[in-house]
């Protein structure tokens, strides 16, 4: 139980994936902040001056960058053991972040973006952006985030927190961003996403509730995937815990 998850090959592969994820996400952030220059396209100046900070995609990029940076630091100074006697703080932070925000938010961003894109790309990524927004950056922000987080689920063990603790953290994060979208609206007079412009207030309320339910459902998907991949190790942990309590 105290051994590191997997052998040396898996350990090296896990670290390599995490480093690649860091490079991918930080590169996307740096390019979006320093080199991306998209015309206003008739949207007001107050909205434009907020830059990338108004998009959940950018919030997620920052979140994923922070998460995988913590993963690399955990590889260096933390622990990848299944059941360390005294889990380092960085390991506890890493595990909690993956379960509560890193997995569900990345999947939410990717699935909602490509889902709306398939229905009507003008609602999320108008064709007018194509000359200014590189396709590789689009995939860095909306495709790679899902690929790397799924690889992390497969290559790294963690025990999920209680559902109340996990969904509470996720809901809090999403509510903070929702408040931010309203702050932007009242500041600029425009909605961050074009899809919100075509909805009335009642439809917007339903839209937000459905999305909040959807992102919380992805928390349970992550929990299920984790149990499917790491079921044997989780059962061993439970038996060891029961044995200790009985003694």
Automatic annotation (TrEMBL):
Superkingdom field: Eukaryota
GO CC aspect terms: endomembrane system; membrane
Catalytic activity: 12-(9Z-octadecenoyloxy)-octadecanoate + H2O = 12-hydroxyoctadecanoate + (9Z)-octadecenoate + H(+); 9-hexadecanoyloxy-octadecanoate + H2O = 9-hydroxy-octadecanoate + hexadecanoate + H(+); 13-(9Z-hexadecenoyloxy)-octadecanoate + H2O = 13-hydroxy-octadecanoate + (9Z)-hexadecenoate + H(+); 9-(9Z-octadecenoyloxy)-octadecanoate + H2O = 9-hydroxy-octadecanoate + (9Z)-octadecenoate + H(+)
Keywords, comma-separated and alphabetical: Membrane, Transmembrane, Transmembrane helix
InterPro entries according to UniProt: ADTRP_AIG1
Membrane topology designation: Multi-pass membrane protein
TM segment ranges: 16-38, 96-119, 139-157, 169-193, 205-225
Subcellular location: Endomembrane system
Major location category of this protein: membrane
PROSITE patterns hit by this protein: PROKAR_LIPOPROTEIN
Pfam families for the chain: Far-17a_AIG1 (PF04750)
Family: Belongs to the AIG1 family.
PANTHER family: ANDROGEN-INDUCED PROTEIN 1-RELATED (PTHR10989), AT02829P-RELATED (PTHR10989:SF16)
Name assigned to this protein: Androgen-induced gene 1 protein-like
Organism for this UniProt entry: Gryllus longicercus
